[in-house]
């Protein structure tokens, strides 16, 4: 019965069908090879695997964080080509299995293009739509375009691991390196499931990926769903990322208690500051949840934690750390209709992520540019 209904929808509406494969002549490239560039995965250059943390960290890593590090949130494949078609072949570590996040966001790849030799702006093109019962798929993202050079960015899955990915271009197409970032520095963002991208409809709509299309720097997404809790061992690993332009700390939403937050946040900041004495640190309080006005304890807990974050940042600044800042995230979804911006009361839709990016963009630009 379920399969029949699915076939009927696809029969009635071709737009609901999986992406077709390209039947022309394709040359398949590994993005691990030059001139392709993998961005957003801080240890990729050394390890050559699609993972957000090192496979053998210097210290212990919480099991949940270690597993979630295989999810490729924030990972991007960047290159330029004059190919008239673009296909991807993907081998995932597992199937789409989330109850409130589309397979296109959990396991899909989406594509942006721009003018050659220009980092920005980028324009959305297409997302892989595939049979979500599979762990391997092939999709054409565009076909029959003019054979002119363009800058191309592919955003990798937010909530699933990637074993392999291949890029399919026209036989004989030119492939060159992507435009250079404004500098070699990186914006590092540590946080929760919201940081990781839950529950964007496609990878490019995670707020870190949106910001990467507005600020010409590499963004490192270290959101760990339900598991980014400010552990000191994770702070030690993150502090090993070289050349940070800014460190954004946004894990309040994962706190099981204000008491734990009071213990972990100062230590996390202290560990990071020990490795990067002058790097700007931005402490971000969490967004408002839709049910707060109906559930007073949620509101009271958020206000209590926000006040602690403000106090801690002010205290550190008074002690001489003038490169640490506080950002009040409670208005990031807007004030009049913030409750319309989530899937489930807490995890943003694409609208919610767009508003979060809008709120953070001017602050980050002030700190970075």
From TrEMBL:
Residue stretches making up the SGNH hydrolase-type esterase N-terminal domain: 26-174
Q: Which Gene3D superfamilies match?
A: Galactose-binding domain-like (2.60.120.260), SGNH hydrolase (3.40.50.1110)
InterPro entries to which the protein is assigned, alphabetical: GxDLY, SGNH_hydro, SGNH_hydro_sf
Report the superkingdom from the record: Bacteria
Entry's SUPFAM superfamilies?
Answer: SGNH hydrolase
Query: Matching Pfam families, A to Z?
Result: GxDLY (PF14607), Lipase_GDSL_3 (PF14606)
All copies of domain SGNH hydrolase-type esterase, residue ranges: 185-365
Q: What is this protein called?
A: Hydrolase
List the top taxonomic levels of the source: Bacteria, Bacillati, Bacillota, Bacilli, Bacillales
